[in-house]
Design brief:
InterPro entries: NAD(P)-bd_dom_sf, Sc_DH/Rdtase_CS, SDR_fam. Belongs to the short-chain dehydrogenases/reductases (SDR) family. With 247 residues, this protein is an alpha/beta fold. 43% of the residues lie in helices and 14% in strands. Strands 3-2-1-4-5-6-7 form a seven-stranded parallel β-sheet, with helices on both faces. Helix 1 (16-27) crosses helix 7 (215-226), helix 3 (62-76) runs parallel beside helix 4 and helix 4 runs parallel beside helix 5 (150-169). The chain is globular, with a radius of gyration of 17 Å.
């Protein structure tokens, strides 16, 4: 139980990568707070994660973010691990077809939302020499022909650079900041793109290892960064993508 006594906050923790992450952190001894916008789904997910605490919060709302951090501290007394996982994926469109409000929404959730949560968490992480793990994407590492999700790619690339900025900014506090870049993972977010077996075969073939990823495979990478096994690792960018970004 490598995380015994530690407290983690996982944004977007009610499903997909966030849920798998919250569960593996809990299974390894951490107390875990999970956030999400859907109270029913959030509570249902919390029942499947031992020693967890569900907090309804939209990371687009500063007051709700502050409340989530405060409730975590009230419940568990400290904060050691922050996983910036919450995010959205836009409709696939070429740049000239994107409406400005669509662009703004993706930036507000995927980039400014991470800023809001991290800003509120930092004073508590300074007390524990904590760990921040940002969930980016291999779409932040390189451009993909026909991907056409420019706002998403831009936010994920920005999060990679912010990871390095925060790693340097808070190294004096011994806060470690690392980033994971998943490829296509089999979650609710990717289901609209794999409606048929043909779609799935195509998506599997895009990854050199021959298949899409599983949420638990990304969660295991989070566990490493969160644990003392990564005590001398900060500013690292890890692709967990079946080799997709190496092509």
């Amino acid at each position: 139980m490598s995380l015994s006594g530690k407290v983690a906050l996982v944004t977007g923790g009610s499903r997909g990568i966030g849920f798998a992450t919250a569960k593996i952190l809990s299974d390894n001894g951490a107390s875990v707070a999970i956030t999400g916008k859907d109270p029913d789904r959030l509570e249902e997910s919390a029942t499947k994660i031992s020693n967890s605490f569900a907090i309804v919060a939209d990371i687009r709302n500063s007051d709700q973010v502050k409340n989530a951090i405060e409730k975590t501290i009230e419940k568990f007394g400290r904060l050691d691990i922050l996983v910036n996982n919450a995010g959205i994926f836009p409709r696939i469109k070429q740049l000239h077809e994107i409406e400005e409000d669509e662009w703004d929404e993706v930036l507000d959730v995927n980039l400014t939302g991470q800023f809001r949560v991290t800003k509120e968490a930092i004073p508590h992480l300074q007390k524990t020499s904590g760990s921040i793990i940002n969930i980016s994407s291999d779409a932040g590492l390189k451009a993909y022909q026909g991907f056409n999700a420019d706002a998403y790619s831009a936010t994920k690339a920005a999060l990679i650079v912010l990871t390095k900025c925060w790693a340097l900014e808070y190294s004096k506090d011994k806060i470690r900041v690392n980033c994971i870049c998943p490829g296509v993972v089999d979650t609710d977010m990717t289901k609209p793109f794999v409606k048929t077996q043909k779609d799935r075969d195509f998506m599997d073939a895009e990854h050199p290892l021959g298949r899409m990823g599983k949420p638990e495979e990304v969660a295991k990478a989070v566990l490493y960064f969160a644990s003392d096994d990564a005590s001398w690792t900060t500013g690292a960018i890890l692709a967990v993508d079946g080799g997709e970004s190496t092509k």
